[in-house]
Design a protein that fits this description.
Structural class: alpha/beta
Strand order of the largest sheet: 2-3-4-5-7-9
Helix content: 40-55%
Shape: globular
Distance between the termini: 59 Å
Radius of gyration: 23 Å
Strand content: 5-15%
Oligomer: single chain
Number of strands: 16
Length: 507
């Protein structure tokens, strides 16, 4: 790699300022601290960077010892997508559970407590909430990350979530603009395309984003999707018509526009991350998110140099890069001011009602989100150690495969001796043999999207009618089993709430 620039001139600093890179490790590497000193204004954290609240607090303090106004961002949606609790599962249900309850004050309280925990660890920009309207039940990447399929419901809960986060000084980044809900392709793997007319987009996809902008969301994340009615040639992240024309001019958004991960194949496979980043800034984006996959110093330097070169060759107007950098610094100043006020509140012992450490608002919400349906067969609560059969689909990239899900651990806590097995095909012979005489609890995730899972579940219920079925994904299929429990998400607290219902002790 050839480094084009040395030192910390204004152009170089602006190019570094608009990057939001990741890194490997639970402490900041020397190269990252050095680049922060040279102008890098944001850092993105992922599950690989976090092992405990104490370690995370030390990490953010290490970053801010280099520069007090650095933005520390994270992809912490709660529910299935958690980085704070990547190895344990989230203490908070996700959007689909909150939308199913449809109590905006509950959503606000959950977001506020999540934000309080982020702020306590020194994180001040959350790439959340997802404001996507999940109008396509076959969507492989949004699903339970959405509040639901109704635009107005998604809008009111998006607003409540933004209010909750920002009320404790954590900037919300509403995503994935202009809406990733009506896709059957994961943009981590390829470019999704939405071919609906403008009237549909305005009546469906854009409703929550209009509401979020009106509510004052500090940031918006773009989607790597092609919306032919808005721009038939470029994905939203690279489209001036969408980022500048629609989001800035029509919706009136003045905050920070952040790209989704630039190494995702929807952009990287066609444009590459360097050209993609230049086109994104030129289109109106202010911050380049990269680091979910590419998380080294060379990536930062390549993107920095690509932006500098684009300015010097006239491809990227220098004032556009300067404007983007100024928006990053403005958000950093807002979060810095909130951190200062938060420190004053702590020193003055001012703690808001309902946000004290240890509050179980997440479990309260998970319990309220349960939908329990009794089947035709008589059902009695499971009172002895059961056999838990988990039907396991391939995890999407956003969720990842590091985070545990299911209810076996929670049932083991309530019924010691609980055994479990994982299955990924339609045969149930091995499952029935392993279960023996034990009651069976079948745990599924998006059964409506997987033919093999449907076949396995039907065969199991036919053989063992007293089976309890727990659906931890979208609740789209007809209820099966003597008892059917829909959790509306696979967070750890959703598993706990379901386990309580299985044994008949649910609150």
């Amino acid at each position: 790699m050839t480094t084009l620039v040395h030192g910390t001139d204004t152009l170089t600093r602006d190019a570094l300022t608009v990057l939001q890179p990741g890194f490997v490790g639970t402490t900041a590497p020397d190269w990252l601290l050095r680049r922060i000193g040279e102008g890098l204004s944001s850092v993105g954290l992922f599950g690989r960077n976090i092992v405990s609240p104490e370690q995370l607090t030390a990490l953010t303090a290490q970053l801010r010892a280099e520069r007090d106004d650095v933005l520390v961002a994270i992809d912490e949606e709660g529910g299935d997508v958690t980085r704070l609790e990547v190895k344990q599962g989230s203490s908070f249900p996700g959007n689909y559970a909150l939308g199913s309850v449809d109590d905006v004050e509950l959503t606000r309280a959950v977001a506020r407590e999540l934000g309080r925990r982020l702020a306590a660890c020194g994180v001040d920009l959350n790439w959340a909430p997802s404001a996507d309207v999940n109008s396509n039940a076959e969507n492989p990447v949004i699903g339970v990350r959405s509040f639901g399929p109704d635009p107005d419901l998604v809008a009111r809960h998006t607003v409540a979530y933004v209010d909750g986060l920002q009320g404790v000084g954590v900037a919300a980044c509403t995503k994935h603009f202009p809406g990733h809900g009506d896709t059957n392709v994961d943009s981590h793997d390829a470019l999704p395309r939405i071919d609906v007319d403008l009237a549909t987009l305005h009546a469906r996809e854009l409703v929550p984003f209009r509401a979020a902008v009106a509510a004052g969301t500090k940031a918006v994340m773009s989607a790597h999707i092609l919306l032919s009615a808005l721009d038939p040639h470029r994905p939203a992240t690279l489209s001036p018509q969408i980022l500048t024309g629609l989001l800035r001019q029509e919706l009136g958004f003045e905050g920070l526009i952040v790209t989704d991960g630039m190494e995702m194949q929807a952009v990287a496979a066609t444009y590459g991350i360097e050209r993609g980043s230049v086109l994104a800034i030129a289109a109106g984006a202010d911050a380049i998110c990269v680091g979910g996959g590419l998380c080294d110093e060379d990536t930062v330097l390549q993107l920095r140099d690509a932006l500098v070169t684009a300015v010097r060759t006239g491809e990227l107007p220098e004032e556009r890069l300067a404007d983007a950098a100024a928006r990053v610094r403005a958000l950093a100043a807002w979060t810095q001011a909130h951190r200062a006020r938060g420190a004053e509140s702590v020193s003055g012992a001012a703690v808001q009602e309902g946000t004290a450490p240890g509050t179980d608002i997440g479990l309260v919400a998970a319990r309220r989100a349960l939908k329990v349906t009794r089947g035709k067969q008589p059902h009695t609560p499971v009172s002895s150690a059961p056999y838990v059969a988990s039907f396991t689909p391939v995890a999407n990239f956003a969720v990842g495969d590091e985070t545990p899900w299911g209810i076996a651990a929670e049932l083991e806590r309530l019924l010691p001796g609980t055994e479990t097995g994982s299955y990924a095909d339609s045969s149930v012979d091995a499952l029935l043999a392993a279960a023996g005489e034990r009651r069976i609890v079948a745990v599924v995730r998006d059964v409506h999207r997987h033919v093999w899972m449907t076949e396995a579940l039907d065969a199991l219920v036919a053989a063992r009618p007293d089976t309890v079925v727990v659906e931890m994904g979208l609740n789209e299929a007809e209820p099966r089993g003597a008892l059917h429990i829909a959790t509306h998400g696979a967070a750890r607290v959703c598993g706990r709430a379901a386990a309580e219902a299985v044994v008949g002790t649910g609150a």
